[in-house]
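Q: What does the assembly look like in three dimensions?
Context provided by user:
Components: two
Sequences:
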Amino acid sequence: MASNQNRKITLLINDIGQLVTMQGPVPRRGPEMSEIGLIENGAIAISGEEIIAVGKADELAGKVDPAENCVVISAGGKVVTPGLIDPHTHPVFARTREKEFEMRLAGKSYMEIARAGGGIRSSVRHLRDTDEKELYERSKKTIRTMMSYGVTSIEAKSGYGLSLEAELKSLRVIKKLNDQEPMDLFATFLGAHEFPDEYRDKPEEYIELIINEMIPAVAKQNLAEFCDIFCEDEVFTVEQSRRILSAAKQAGLKIKIHADEIKSTGGAELAVELKAVSADHLVKISSTGIEMMAKSNTVAVLLPGTSFALGLDQSAPARELISKGAVVALSTDCNPGSSMTESLPMIISLAAINLKMTAAESLSAVTVNAACAVDRGDRLGRIERGMKADMVIWDMDDYRELPYHYGVNLVETVIKNGKVVSGG
Amino acid sequence: MASNQNRKITLLINDIGQLVTMQGPVPRRGPEMSEIGLIENGAIAISGEEIIAVGKADELAGKVDPAENCVVISAGGKVVTPGLIDPHTHPVFARTREKEFEMRLAGKSYMEIARAGGGIRSSVRHLRDTDEKELYERSKKTIRTMMSYGVTSIEAKSGYGLSLEAELKSLRVIKKLNDQEPMDLFATFLGAHEFPDEYRDKPEEYIELIINEMIPAVAKQNLAEFCDIFCEDEVFTVEQSRRILSAAKQAGLKIKIHADEIKSTGGAELAVELKAVSADHLVKISSTGIEMMAKSNTVAVLLPGTSFALGLDQSAPARELISKGAVVALSTDCNPGSSMTESLPMIISLAAINLKMTAAESLSAVTVNAACAVDRGDRLGRIERGMKADMVIWDMDDYRELPYHYGVNLVETVIKNGKVVSGG
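A: Here is the predicted structure of the complete assembly.
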């Protein structure tokens, strides 16, 4: 336990039945993913936006110095975890696409709908027609819902603009949300999400536009930290992806890849080659890809909600990735096409059922490892002295209830930057 | 549209973008399940606990006579449906069973856990040790969560007592919840849920206890409307089920059967033979069973959450049941063992993805047909003059968002017995 003589406690959380600190290795691989740093009857002391002491409630009591206006919250013997981190989201869109969902039920594939002008391209048409203020309000609702489900930080992608102007508009919405809402948003430029209608017949020109105009503008305006690409059969080839991502790296952006989602194209291998921060999806990752991921620091961000909502039989090989030693994270993939959910706890249930991940492994995957997937392993994802004071009080007695009790919201209170933002 | 000159309107719901009335056949079979009685720009007038007029907002406006204290709610252009009905729930239990969930992930089957003294028998031990007041508080929390997800009526089973005293205790909890909470609960006696530990070696004696003591006591005290049984390999045989259910019918109880869940044992056929109100689960229903269900009024209550949470590959043959003309309803099977969820909307998502049911079919299955599964087709499940004023305002523009936008709560306001009980 650590305490601090100089700083006054502004928030004290007491009577925590199970305090899931996630203290331990960063990132977590293999059996380390089962380590959740559990403290029974715990307490947490916070000063301002930072955690300054964590430990057994009875030991902590005498050692901290509450400020006059210190807020004291009893967790009522329940579970506290770090605030969850959702490392792969597309929250900036203009409209939901429920009609396509019903078309898929009737037998159309995701790619068939895309070829017919639906899919990402339909979201592009709507986003271009929506003004920035309306887009902001729509996106704000999405991230507030995420937070109500225990998420305190997200990675947020553009990618429904696919023109210089509409991509910058999307990234400005993300920046403004980060500035105005308690949620931390880490922005990703995803101009290479699809070829827009006007470039269907001249893909090379669109790639030039991304490299020569979009990436420089995004970097210059400091609107994104990451650059991502949909590397997939019928979208961007591995070679096109390498060119675009290399340009992004040169411009100072970190790299992510939508890899091996629908077909095995070598996306994971490319991610490791380019030292990407993460390779995401990985439903069809090759054996070579798994071996390479296991030896790298590139985080494998798995999205079981997408396989679920697309009605696919296959999911990413989570058990093999974990047993081989890859750094595994989980995410909603929240987007209006293939995974319309804001709930990361729902994804934890799906990870249990479809990926055979335990509650402890999934907790590692949405805290410590998800923090690494947004390059914030040093600051987020653990309840530990010096870390950002983001945490969730859950209405449950045992953390294993999280995957088991599915489809409902078990959040009692969300604390972000040392302040209660929801519930309580 | 109907109006009523004599009764004052106490609640008026206006500006309904999509009013899903569910007006039409009761019950609904085959293509009728796609009929949802949609009115665009609708309004509903309620007097006391009853709906007295439904129609286009502009036509209704001049025809109703608001009381002085009439509450007017704008649905803001959103979707309104009847309150959902969950026709198969086990809400009276003492403890969650998250550890068994993790055992199943590790490869143990539901039946292996049951044989080792887990499963229903572990819930029985905990329920017997829990006093009635505590059990009431625990169960109240469950049904309040259900209501927050848009459910206004449920069927509620005993079945974790398995002694005369503990079964009556469970049924008294259900009765008290029905009396004290806005939720309508229709009680089902499920003493034949499993053989309790003390009768493992003398099953015949337990059957005698059910027939000679439990059923007469339940009937005499008027504590249940239905009698259900877990007709399954290793639990109650078809012959034992026939004896118990026949005794229940003689005592004036209506019949339900947990049928063909894990193995095909002829449960559906027995349900039709006994004119059961419903046959539930049906994952392994035989072709003969399907044909018989299609020609009967016995409702096929499908529970896709249970297949999902047990990680099974197989689901009930919903499409075949619908195309052959069976009356299909959906339910959570909310219970601490095989399906820990209170969310019927979650089940609608699972019905879409795993049973290939459209949004319209699922709406029929949780309103009109679910009402028939609790023998209330005349009073619940439709927004129509003379029906009970139970309805939900959803935060969505199109009813098809219900299955598509998964794992989160889209309820804006729940209205039960003509009063706002949640949200709004």
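Follow-up: The first strand of chain B starts at residue 9 and ends at 20.
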